[in-house]
Specification:
The longest helix is centred in the middle third of the chain and has 16 residues. By secondary structure, the chain is α/β, with parallel strands linked by helices. Adenosine-5'-triphosphate (ATP) binds next to helix 1.
Length: 267
């Protein structure tokens, strides 16, 4: 039977002899929303960039709906929409021209491009040049291109950066709509409020190690409201300390310093 969702097994990244992301396992189910949280330079973007095939893992296996990234890259990538943390849009193009360009690259129609622009509230601004867009508008355009064609998995790097409170709320609504359609979403963020509101599961990354991965119910049971803010304050001071092997995980297996732990117990 085909495995559904995203499966990352013993994935790690080292550059020039330095480990940027320590080995970890992660499963994202269809329709599940996962937040990747952590401070600057923790390794969040590197994890996302490995999922979208921009950065090649040094070891491990990545599969989406049974398709292996390494063995069948084209079909694997067709299932993914990616929003990078920053991007230089082609100079001189309007929002509509940009979206139609992305749509043509992905074999999607102009009306799908228009629908995606509407979904992020850029329909009125469609004939404006992207070069005059505010940061928040550019973020929404990047989100729209990632959503094009409703891929199985959306990978969003800092999607809420630059969004005002209204669009932060709209982001939560949009993600919830995608989730209801069975689309999985994994996103990195420094803004724990957005993660609190929309995630089903949250990972905390410190110095390239996933120190905790748990369902939101688990965080809420432990910390109550604003669960991720409290979890972050508890985990963050440990940044310069050795990571203990007893870190709790939920259904995800996390490998810390080369040893494997499932649900907080040795596997
Ligand atoms: N190509 C590279 N060569 C060398 N080091 C790199 C490379 N890419 C990333 N790194 C390092 O890996 C670490 C993790 O970087 P990454 O961009 O994944 O962090 P991040 O959690 O997304 O940070 P931020 O929140 O600041 O965007 C950083 O120390 C970074 O300097």
């Amino acid at each position: 039977m085909t495995k559904t969702g995203l499966h990352m097994m013993q994935v790690e990244k080292a550059i020039g002899g330095k480990t940027i992301v320590h080995p970890f396992d992660l499963h994202v189910e269809p329709g599940q929303v996962v937040a990747v949280c952590g401070g600057n330079g923790a390794g969040k973007s590197t994890i996302l960039r490995m999922i979208v095939g921009i950065t090649q893992p040094s070891a491990g296996t990545i599969e989406l709906n049974g398709i292996n990234l390494k063995q069948d890259r084209v079909n694997y990538l067709q299932q993914i929409g990616y929003m990078p943390d920053h991007f230089n849009f082609p100079a001189g193009l309007t929002a509509s021209e940009c979206m139609r360009f992305y749509a043509s690259l992905r074999g999607r129609t102009a009306s799908e491009a228009d629908e995606a622009l509407k979904a992020v509230g850029l329909h009125e601004a469609r004939n404006k040049k992207v070069s005059v867009f505010s940061k928040g508008m550019q973020q929404r355009l990047l989100f729209a291109q990632a959503m094009l064609g409703k891929p199985a998995l959306l990978v969003l790097d800092e999607p809420t950066n630059g969004l005002d409170p209204y669009w932060m709320g709209a982001f939560v609504d949009l993600v919830n709509t995608l989730k209801r359609e069975g689309i999985s979403v994994i996103f990195s963020t420094h803004q724990l409020q957005a993660a609190n509101e929309v995630a089903d599961r949250a990972l905390f990354v410190i110095n390239g190690t996933i120190v905790r991965s748990a369902a939101m119910e688990e965080y809420r049971a432990e910390y109550g409201e604003l669960a991720l803010h409290r979890a972050f304050s508890e985990l963050f001071p440990r940044e310069r300390q050795p990571i203990k092997h007893s870190e709790k995980t939920s259904s995800v297996t996390v490998t810390i310093r080369g040893r494997e732990s499932r649900n907080g117990r040795d596997a």
